[in-house]
Write a structure and sequence with these properties.
With about 100 residues, this protein is mainly alpha-helical. The protein has helices spanning about 15-20, 25-35, 50-60, 70-90; strands spanning about 45, 65-70.
Length: about 100
């Protein structure tokens, strides 16, 4: 998500154990965002936690500045999107 506009640049669902395998899903997600802006972000704000380690590792490989922040600090940006995803996938069904 672009923090300035709160525009979601890309999303992907994958098991975390798959993310370890060569960081491919993380790379793909960063490239989705790059296509919108024609550049990678200068700074990546990442909530603290185990799942973020893979993202941080790949972001550093891409030479991005990574700032680790409390999850509560990013909720202002991602809260609405998180709620939408939770509602959509809460029961595991795809009604589309």
């Amino acid at each position: 998500m672009d923090a300035a506009s709160c525009f979601i640049l890309g999303s992907d669902l994958f098991p975390l154990n798959m993310a370890d395998a060569h960081h491919l899903p993380i790379r793909r997600l960063l490239m989705q965002g790059k296509r919108h802006k024609q550049q990678l972000p200068r700074t990546l704000f990442v909530p603290k936690g185990d799942a973020a380690e893979i993202l941080v590792s790949e972001a550093l490989r891409q030479k991005l500045h990574v700032v680790s922040i409390a999850e509560s600090e990013v909720l202002i940006f991602i809260g609405e999107a998180r709620q939408g995803f939770a509602e959509r996938f809460a029961d595991g069904r795809d009604d589309a």
